[in-house]
């Protein structure tokens, strides 16, 4: 029990504020504990010092300090998370585990790897045999047409090579009581939920309902977001793969622009509320003249605007490349009353095509201000191509570690938590915290300044 005695204890260190991690024993007494089956696993060496992680193993949220500031006051508020990894004692008898895995929201490279590793990890690390895939997102828990599929290592062995999610995903269809009723009815006692910010908010509701019903069911969330818009974790799996794939679109736009008279290559990249993909693709490409993201509003006409800047670039270089995140400039595009209300199944506002709008605005501007002169705008919208690919090597490893971390935490009885990388190490973070944390691009930091150095674009601050 040493592991648990420490779980809410802030006296481990006077400067650490260890985040409370929900545990099944918070509301269920006298749960049986078991020796971790890894103890008898021929491939592991649990007797080695440091193999098992205890509650006193923590990861600090903030790692940068200015030592010139005497006794930094912020140390008093230093947040820490429990470190992920196998615990000496578990709260599940593997032969009694019935695990469910579900994928929700949009696609992201690596979803299949996470599913695969949950199956392989549960099976090979802990000896769990009852593992089920819930098809078609949250609605798949309770709708009759979606049959839950039993998953086993042989079935999933090459899933990490596939883009998408073999389980299928969907938006909307979140019906809390039907979902928890179905979980209870099916006898699931471990539920692994893979999805983005909306999915994590749904997972919090499920967890809270499970606690309200006092069920011996552990709920785990694994953040998936190609937009990288989930906070606290370093980044989401699949993000790097998406950025890498986006490079191909930018390269093509550059080639097209260079090969035309007054050529503009325009690339629209995913990013609903955050411009991380556009930003990272811009930084790695170095061919981009202007990067537009939702966090930094822009304007077209007048001094310091887009048209003035692009006019100068065309004069100087004969071509220009513009990258725009899909959520950028939405406030500039005229919308009909119906378009203002349009939402997807999950309630997310539907965006208008900023790339198509920009292309037409560029043409109008050019014809108006440069009559008779050629302008070529090549618009590339790779949309789903950047997220419907298999994960690259780095993301695949990330998916494995995040899945195995999730399993260790669940087997140790934790619930209502997320496993994810914090400062390069895997941590357990309360689901509620992750569901609320956003991760916008910080346009005040060095990275955004670096984008502006690489592109030379204006800051779009009217002055
Ligand atoms: N606030 C919420 N409370 C409960 N469930 C939610 C909430 N927001 C979204 N959901 C449910 O979560 C699932 C996925 O949500 P959504 O379609 O917004 O994708 P996401 O998880 O945010 O992923 P992404 O945006 O990366 O595609 C849907 O089934 C949706 O109904
Ligand atoms: O067209 P769909 O599948 O609803 O998803 C589009 C959205 O999903 C995301 O890829 C996030 O998963 C956003 O970048 C994009 O706005
Ligand atoms: Mg979302």
TrEMBL record:
<dbReference type="GO" id="GO:0006002">
    <property type="term" value="P:fructose 6-phosphate metabolic process"/>
</dbReference>
<comment type="subunit">
    <text>Homotetramer.</text>
</comment>
<dbReference type="GO" id="GO:0005524">
    <property type="term" value="F:ATP binding"/>
</dbReference>
<feature type="binding site">
    <location>
        <begin position="270"/>
        <end position="272"/>
    </location>
    <ligand>
        <name>substrate</name>
    </ligand>
</feature>
<keyword id="KW-0808">Transferase</keyword>
<dbReference type="InterPro" id="IPR000023">
    <property type="entry name" value="Phosphofructokinase_dom"/>
</dbReference>
<keyword id="KW-0460">Magnesium</keyword>
<keyword id="KW-0479">Metal-binding</keyword>
<feature type="binding site">
    <location>
        <position position="197"/>
    </location>
    <ligand>
        <name>Mg(2+)</name>
    </ligand>
</feature>
<keyword id="KW-0547">Nucleotide-binding</keyword>
<dbReference type="InterPro" id="IPR035966">
    <property type="entry name" value="PKF_sf"/>
</dbReference>
<dbReference type="GO" id="GO:0003872">
    <property type="term" value="F:6-phosphofructokinase activity"/>
</dbReference>
<feature type="binding site">
    <location>
        <position position="106"/>
    </location>
    <ligand>
        <name>ATP</name>
    </ligand>
</feature>
<keyword id="KW-0324">Glycolysis</keyword>
<keyword id="KW-0418">Kinase</keyword>
<feature type="binding site">
    <location>
        <position position="326"/>
    </location>
    <ligand>
        <name>substrate</name>
    </ligand>
</feature>
<dbReference type="GO" id="GO:0046872">
    <property type="term" value="F:metal ion binding"/>
</dbReference>
<dbReference type="GO" id="GO:0005737">
    <property type="term" value="C:cytoplasm"/>
</dbReference>
<keyword id="KW-0067">ATP-binding</keyword>
<feature type="domain" description="Phosphofructokinase">
    <location>
        <begin position="99"/>
        <end position="408"/>
    </location>
</feature>
<dbReference type="Pfam" id="PF00365">
    <property type="entry name" value="PFK"/>
</dbReference>
<feature type="active site" description="Proton acceptor">
    <location>
        <position position="227"/>
    </location>
</feature>
<comment type="pathway">
    <text>Carbohydrate degradation; glycolysis; D-glyceraldehyde 3-phosphate and glycerone phosphate from D-glucose: step 3/4.</text>
</comment>
<feature type="site" description="Important for substrate specificity; cannot use PPi as phosphoryl donor">
    <location>
        <position position="198"/>
    </location>
</feature>
<dbReference type="InterPro" id="IPR022953">
    <property type="entry name" value="ATP_PFK"/>
</dbReference>
<comment type="similarity">
    <text>Belongs to the phosphofructokinase type A (PFKA) family. PPi-dependent PFK group II subfamily. Atypical ATP-dependent clade 'X' sub-subfamily.</text>
</comment>
<comment type="function">
    <text>Catalyzes the phosphorylation of D-fructose 6-phosphate to fructose 1,6-bisphosphate by ATP, the first committing step of glycolysis.</text>
</comment>
<feature type="binding site">
    <location>
        <begin position="384"/>
        <end position="387"/>
    </location>
    <ligand>
        <name>substrate</name>
    </ligand>
</feature>
<feature type="binding site">
    <location>
        <begin position="171"/>
        <end position="172"/>
    </location>
    <ligand>
        <name>ATP</name>
    </ligand>
</feature>
<feature type="binding site">
    <location>
        <begin position="196"/>
        <end position="199"/>
    </location>
    <ligand>
        <name>ATP</name>
    </ligand>
</feature>
<dbReference type="InterPro" id="IPR050929">
    <property type="entry name" value="PFKA"/>
</dbReference>
<dbReference type="InterPro" id="IPR012004">
    <property type="entry name" value="PyroP-dep_PFK_TP0108"/>
</dbReference>
<protein>
    <recommendedName>
        <fullName>ATP-dependent 6-phosphofructokinase</fullName>
        <ecNumber>2.7.1.11</ecNumber>
    </recommendedName>
</protein>
<keyword id="KW-0021">Allosteric enzyme</keyword>
<keyword id="KW-0963">Cytoplasm</keyword>
<feature type="binding site">
    <location>
        <begin position="225"/>
        <end position="227"/>
    </location>
    <ligand>
        <name>substrate</name>
    </ligand>
</feature>
